[in-house]
What does this fold into?
Amino acid sequence: MSILTNDEILRYSRHLKLPTFGIEAQRKLKQSKVLLIGAGGLGCPIGLYLAAAGVGSLVLVDDDVVEVHNLQRQVAHNTAAAGTAKVGSLKQRLQELNPHVEISTHDRRLDAEWAMDVVVDCDLVIDGTDNFATRYLTADACYLAKKPLVYGAIYQFEGQVSLFDPTGAGGCYRCLFPEPPAPGQAPSCDEAGVLGVLPGTIGLMMANEAIKHLCKVGDTLAGYLLMYDALTPSMRRLKLSRDSACKLCGDQPSITRAEAPVVVCAVPVPEAPVPEVSVQEAQAAMAEGARFVDVRGPHEYAICHVGGATLLPLPSLDADSVAALQRDQPLVVYCHKGVRSRKATARLQALGFEKVVSMRGGIDAWANEIEPTMARY
It folds into this structure.
């Protein structure tokens, strides 16, 4: 069993004073190796509190870089880290917080080629990702490797947490969500938005589940799903049961290896290509009398918009809402980054508009290339 140094005893003294935690639990924590997938909104608070608590070894996996718009919620990164790898930025912060923790990093996305290798080598896995492909890959790999998985997810003002233990009751992630969402049913994280403090709240709950499981103290969320609403505020705990028909852990499982499913988030792109123009071509069309149509939400329009643009949010784009548009006037449709506008362009074409194009790159490209003083988000 790992021996705590005098410095560690002083550092973790508040843990050691807890009668149901004490030095034995702290030693178990020091012996543990945790795989943290994701160094963003959830990964930052999880990493900070696991390192502060004294987990022995942390393995960080993420292929993204720090961007300024991350800093509203990804609190372990700072402005100076913009443009650098998230795993490197998070590692530096955690080492500054607690030099006793061994930290290794993988600046890459988890994939099927090495998922099992990295999962097998750890005592517990924490899913702090924001995409369904990695989430299902992680869940499958953890179950097949018989490793406990702490799961968490956030959306706008809501979050959920659970712990899936392959050796216990309550089933697996696929018992709760058998298949990835169909194209168009999963909102894009980039477009949906999230309250900055929400990943902190959910991330700390996830870190708490990891510590309890590793130290064998208290009751975990194994067999339960905790749902949190930050606006109400309220919490609900739902009982989870194993699904005998589950493809992963059921009586006749069909999933025998970890593979990343193909998942399409946000608005599905039309099968038939739609006409697109660059922001420079859109600007030239404006000078010749084209009308700009903004298909984002009103809250996005309030942040920034092209001067004179007509707001027609995509969900309400129908025959009635387009009645004010002139069919003989050229239309340039835009959204945030050019995804929703392609869908809107196809819909307008179906409604009989022939002179309609989608602006490639959306208002983000417009702000970057045409109006550099415009706010970006």
Remarks:
- The chain has a mean pLDDT of 93.
